[in-house]
Amino acid sequence: MSGAASPTNLVRRALHSWVWVLPALGVIALVLTWNRELPTAVYLLVGAVLIGVVLAAVHHAEIVAHRVGEPFGSLVLAVAVTVIEVGLIITLMLGKASVDTSTLARDTAFAAVMITLNGILGISILIGSLKHETPRFNPEGAGGALAVVVTLTTLTLVIPSFTVSEPGARFSPAQLVFVAIASIVLYGAFVLLQTGRHRDFFLPVAKDGRIIDEDQHSDPPSTRTTIVSLGLLLVALVAVVGLAKAVSPGIENVVEAAGVPQSFVGVIVALVVLLPEGLAAAKAAARNRLQTSLNLGIGSAMASIGLTIPALAVASIWLPTPLTLGLGPVQIIEFLLTVAVATLTVVPGRATRLQGAVHLVLFAAFLFLATTP
Prior knowledge:
Elements: H1 7-33, H2 40-68, H3 72-93, H4 104-132, H5 139-158, H6 173-195, H7 223-258, H8 264-286, H9 290-306, H10 308-315, H11 329-346, H12 353-371
GO molecular function: potassium:proton antiporter activity; sodium:proton antiporter activity
Keywords: Membrane, Transmembrane, Transmembrane helix
Organism: Protaetiibacter intestinalis
């Protein structure tokens, strides 16, 4: 049997073809389920379609990003992921009136930080170290990205727990405006660094320390492919937001039936949004491209806060509940421990199995404490 017709290639072609079909399938599912009470089995089916459409949306955003080039490519991908995340959060916040959703934005943003800095990084480091002993990466690039994420998380999620202008762990309108602007400025500064003069800080590193610039030999997609992907991306984004509304009662009912806190809904949202980045990061680590894995993981955390919080700050004008962004004591301790461990991971510029194991244990602790506070 020839290589072109091998079972592996056939599976890859089938999966690739589904990426082009899923946005239309998502719209069909949206039309069939709009404003309807659904049985549990249908909720699960629609949820699976929702995850597939999210994967398809990110895939088409990557095609458009590759075509337009940097720095606009990074912005296209970040904006697409932000639209998905904000759409999911707002849809759930507009759900059941009997459920307090004021902390959903905080729970989702914090979950994104813990998933990326511990889950995605831990899995990537463990895969990379198991397959390639001690894979290398650029500490300047990873360290700079980590610094931005730590600053964004502290400004948006830690400080409101200590401010006194508003009751509870909330910002005053003026404080929320300042934090939103600061987040956009920091994210923009990082994009300029990553795509400008210090682009080499974020390129994969070989074992001998040589920088590997794979994009120099990567042909951009054709104009026709880009236009089709842009159209399917817009369709997928509409389907994601609509399907989120359809499955939101199911998500809330499952969380309630499982007896876990309502805040776990934010963890579910973050897991769905970050699934494509997690898969891509694991694949990059297996190819000895750990720097790419770090870029995907830490960059996803950055976009989840640096763009999502400002977008929700604007949306809060129309939302029925205020934004409670301040973390609780246990979450702050989890964050501080994650920062300390991530810093020690980044500084050497080399990854070991032990580092991967530590991050994964922290991730497991986060999930356990999210279900059993």
